Fold this protein.
Amino acid sequence: MFFDKKDIFFDLDHTIWDFDKNARETLQELYHTYKFDALTGESSPDAFIDAYTANNHRLWGLYHHGLIDKAMLRKARFEDTFSQLGISPSLFPWAFEEEYLAICPTKTNLFPHAHETLAYLANNYRLHVISNGFKEACETKLAHSKLVNYFQTIVISENVGVNKPNPAIFHYALKNGEAAVGKSVMIGDNLDADVRGAQAVGMDAIFFNAVGARRPADVKYMIADLRELQSYF
């Protein structure tokens, strides 16, 4: 289907690196370390993690579009979670956030068939990353999960100064990777940042839909498992 392509650009979080699973593991550990059960009244961290996950996704959506900055995202995701659970945000210990940022990127849970698929694609295509994640975290994730060697170039929005879906980061990534827009494909989980962002600059895009969302009318290509890419390329 895409046998004429030469360059494949991947999102990292929620596409290759399983952000929610890695975050859940980290939050479970820290919930008990910081004795959050005394604050929430719940021995299980599930309610805390669910609230955090929803707030984090919402805030990252704002960050993608430049409506909040990195500092606000980091501050609000836990404070908003405490507020949602009926706990004063002033009680949130910021050492928790620092430990979370140190531990979570070292987790190595990937989506099923990630290494298998990347190894397959790397035989015939040049692979790249375009991530809106934070620089230090992205570099740690790629290293600890042994992903670095698959990719010719790695573009992190914090280094470029603009986030997906801004066309500027796609143009930068194409130029940096010496890739032609008509010979390139973007693969990612975020409809706005990855799929529509790429389509807006003329790139084909594949929606990685691991959560069973309905395919929008403007999205031509969709997969639920990374291994499906082996039939596309």
Summary: The first helix runs from residue 19 to 33. The chain has eleven helices and six strands.
